[in-house]
Amino acid sequence: MLSCGRLNKNLKIIARLCSIERTLIFHMGRHTYATEICLSQGVPIESLSRMLGHRDLRSTQIYAKITNHKIAEDMQRVESRIKNKFQLPV
Asked: Distance from CA of residue 83 to its chain's centroid?
């Protein structure tokens, strides 16, 4: 298994070959995986916590940045589920 340091060196080589000016590190990949791949696709944060190997959900919450797009999707899902269930008296 590659060490984190070796992975980061390889990422620097890849970034240079691809003309990526931003410094790439392995840790960034964990954040991207958590937010852009898992949470944006509806994976529950409890499952994501296990997938990342966290014992404490608070650790996962640090990784898990909720995007505005995800909030909008969740709001639409709630709205469609309750649309005909609640009505204000006229």
From this structure: 29
Q: How many domains does the chain have?
A: 1
Q: For residue 52, what is the DSSP state? A: T
DSSP letter for each residue of 29-49: HHHHIIIIIIGGGT--HHHHH
Residue numbers of the domain that contains 38: 27-82
Q: Is residue 12 part of a domain?
A: no
Report field, pTM of the whole predicted structure over 0.70:
no
Q: What is the CA radius of gyration of the chain?
A: 19
Q: Over the stretch 21-69, which tens digit does the pLDDT of each residue have?
A: 998 898 888 888 998 889 888 899 999 999 999 999 999 988 777 778 8
